[in-house]
# Entry
Amino acid sequence: MADKLGKNKDKKRLENQLKSIHQGIQKYAFNAEKVEYSGLKPFPEFLPVVNILALDYGIVPEKYRAQLEKRVVENIVEEKDYHLWGGIFSIHSAFEYLPKNGYANIMHKVVVNEEWPSFGWMIKEGATTLPEGYKFTSSDMHHFMGAVDNFFYRHIVGINADESHPGFQNIILKPNFIKSMEFAKASYNSIHGEIKAEWKKIDENTYEYYGEVPPNCEAKVVLPSKTETIKSGAFKYVVNL
# Structure
C-alpha cells in the first residue's frame, strides 16, 4: 500500500519490519529438522492449519515448501480423514492456498464431511447460517469462518477479481471441476453488472463451462487446457480433463 501511495519512507520502514518479523518466525516457530511450524507454544501434534498459514503467506524457505505442502495434504487426508480445525485466519488461508495449488477436490471433501468438526456437520445438525465456532455454543450467525463462501465463488465456480485491475471490469474466470459434483452455479453483482458462471458434468472427464461477462468488461478464462481473454457477453466451453 505504501508503495502504491508513493510513501517511500513508510515503505522502507515496513519492509524492515517485515524482515524482522520473518526472521523471528523462522527462529522461534520453524523446526527445520521436522519441516514444520509448531507455533510459539508448540503443540504435541502436527497442525496443518498453522503450516498452511506459513505456505499461504509465503514465508516458508523455498527448499522446504514442496515437502511441507505434501505433508499438510497427507495429514488432512490420511491422519485427519478430511477434517480441518482452525480459526479465522488459518481457515481463510486453507480455502485459498490449497485450491490454488491443485487441491480443490480435497477441500470440497473437507467442506461436505458430516463428521464433526466440519461445515457438513453443521448442516446435518440443522444450521442454516454459519455459527461462530465448530459447535453451537456462541453466536449462530457469524462470519468467523466465512472463507468457505470464497471457496464456492472463487475456486469452484471460478469468479475472481483481477487484482491488477480492481473493480471487476477485468475478471478472471478459473473454475475447478469437482469430481463428486454434477454442477456448480453462481453469480456476482459487480458495479459493472452481473457476472454469471456455471459448469455441469457431461461425463466422468467432460464438463461444460458457461456464463456471461457484463457489458464493457473482459474476462481471462483459465481452464486446464487453455487460457484466453474474452469480451463481454455469453460464453461457453467444453472442457475435457
